[in-house]
Amino acid sequence: MTSYLNVLSDSPESSTKTVAPAAEFLGRVAVFSQNLASATLARALAAMAETIPISHTAPQCLLASAEGDDHTPGLALAEVCLREAGWAARWVGAPTRTAHLVEHVRAGEVQMVALSASLRSRDGPALASQARRVGAACRVAGAALVLGGAGRWPETPSFGVRLRTWEEFARVTKARAETRS
Question: Which pLDDT tens digit goes with each residue over 55-64?
Answer without folding.
Answer: 999 999 999 9
